Amino acid sequence: MKNNHKALLDALCRRLSTRASVETGVFVLLVAMTAVSAAMVKEASHLPALASVAQPGADRTNASIIVAANRTPAANTTAAEPTRLEPTPAEAERAERILERKAEQVRWFNGRPVRPARVVWMTVTAYSPDARSCGPFADGITATLHSVETNGGNLVAADTRLFPFGSMLSVEGYDEGNIVPVLDRGGAIKGHHIDLLMPTHKQARQWGVKRMPVVVWEFADGKPMEDPRKFR
């Protein structure tokens, strides 16, 4: 009888040990699956940092609400060329007049002489760096890792296939027409479309959506344009 009890006890211990091993394995597997799932969700839910604001009721034929600061570079940079929206004859004539007028001005930017290179008709919208525009990504940092306060808070988000970081633009009605740098970009900013940084959400909404001429500037000292990502 004693031997039977010992055999029964040994069998029960082996069964409990096997069950514990199985449960431990299942637990480890569940933890691993949870970790993988969390990583996949985080990667899939990566959102741009700054969202622009369009004025309610504004014409969105040529522009929608624009995302303005996706700081993660795309893995594949061979995207299709942006579609060019040709200016009307009246717009082209106005652009020529603007270029002639700007050519008479002597300007400097970052301590270097600049001159107007061309005038491009663009869809121009605006965004703000606060939580109402950026949500949880309102960290005050642009795609070039510069603060949104750079250049006095006057900067542009653009399609860097057209305007590489560091490009110099001027827009009538923004920063008194002064030259402002391209320091931001976004996945939804495509082609002839730029986004202007405004101090507040209210000012961004007041700007709305406009189609207007934008002056593109170039350095006149013969030296190449500097990449703003290399200095902060």
Summarize the structure.
The protein has helices at 2-44, 89-103, 131-134, 201-207, and strands spanning 52-53, 107-109, 112-127, 156-157, 168-171, 180-184, 193-197, 210-219. The chain has 2 domains: 1-45; 52-73 and 86-230, RlpA-like domain (Barwin-like endoglucanases, Beta Barrel). It has a 6-stranded mixed beta barrel.
- Please identify the structural class as seen in this structure: alpha+beta
Q: Please, what is the CATH homologous superfamily of the largest domain?
A: RlpA-like domain
Overall shape: it is: globular
Give the total of beta strands: 8
Q: How many structurally independent domains?
A: 2
Order of helices and strands: HEHEEHEEEEHE
Measured as a percent range, the helix fraction is 25-40%
Distance between the termini: 85 Å
Low-pLDDT stretches are 34-52, 54-79
Number of helices: 4
| Order of strands, widest sheet | 3-7-4-6-5-8
Query: What is the correct CATH architecture of the largest domain?
Result: Beta Barrel
Major sheet description: 6 strands, mixed, barrel
Q: Indicate the mean pLDDT.
A: 73
Strand content: 15-25%
3D structure, described in words:
- The protein has two domains: 1-45; 52-73 and 86-230, Barwin-like endoglucanases (Beta Barrel), CATH 2.40.40.10.
- The longest helix is centred in the first third of the chain and has 43 residues, at 2-44.
- Residues 34-52 and 54-79 have low confidence and may be disordered.
- It is of the alpha+beta class and 232 residues long.
- It has helices spanning 2-44, 89-103, 131-134, 201-207; strands spanning 52-53, 107-109, 112-127, 156-157, 168-171, 180-184, 193-197, 210-219.
